[in-house]
Structures are given as C-alpha cells and as structure tokens.
Specification:
The chain is an all-alpha fold. Helices cover 70% and strands 0% of the residues. It has six helices and no strands. The two termini are 21 Å apart. The C terminus is likely disordered.
Length: 176
Amino acid sequence: MHLKGSVIVDRARRMRIPPLDSALVFLIFWLLSGIVFLQFFTRYVLNDSIGWTEEIARYLLILVTFLGSAIAVRRNTHISVEFFYRYLPKHLARLLSAVVDFLRISLLGIMTVLCIQLSNNTQQMMTSIDVSKSVLYGFVAGCFCLMTLYSIIAAWRHVLEGKLDVAPDVPASWEE
C-alpha cells in the first residue's frame, strides 16, 4: 500500500528520524505528572507539602514545552497560515516557502546562540535543590538546536522535492 499522500507514506517518512525526542518528552512528562501528584498528595492529604515539588514541576514543564516544540518542528505541525500558499501561483508559493524557511532557520539559530550564551553566563542556583539554572538553560538551548536542525532538514526537503508541506493534512492547490 504505497499511495502518494496517504497516511501510511507520511508515517513511514516520519519514522526515518528516530523518535528519541518523543521518548524523552514522554519520560519527562510522566516525571512531571508524578511530582505534581506528590505535591497534591502531600499538600491536601497529608496537610504538609514538600517544598521542592513546585519549583521542580515548573522546570519540568519548561523542559516538556521546549522539547515538545522540537517535536512539532520535526513533524511540521506548528501552527501556520496556509492561506497565501493556497491562492498564490506555484512559483510565488515556493518563493514564499523559501523565505519562511530561511527566516525560521535564522530565528531558531539566533535563539540557540542566545540560550547558549545565557547558559554560560548564569551562575544562579535553583532555590530548592543545589543545581545551577544553567543546566535548564542548556537543555533549552539544545531544544532550540534540535529545532534549527529539523528546520534545515525540512528546508532541504523543500528544495529537493519542490514540495511545500506547509500543512501536511490539507492539500494545497498547486499539488492537485
């Protein structure tokens, strides 16, 4: 069953990149869930909450958010405005896609560099545990680096295939 545009082909294309980021975000999410449950249980059942759970839950939520963003870039499922792509002529839609790809790669690359600088310049420690906040900022920088890499791969795919997968689930007028 190899039909162009089918879900099977799309799923097979996505599986070329090992979903290590998905497994990591899954693990972090369940760790976050466990800590939030521990916080709830100690606060409302035992009437004596553990102090570090709130801060750690906040940092784990940040990790889930940025790693989830990297996964969304890899899958090309971030919110986008496909109105212009649907109604522009084919050559203008490809040009617009190239400009958007360039801007996205540039922005994510700049954010990677800024997060690395922030991570290197941070000496502040977390309040409840003896870990530097630079570890958190380094993880966010790694997520931005992943997003940049995934954006480069998507842009390269656009150049090679000449296809614009702006919204993978909505067929565009130039592909029909």
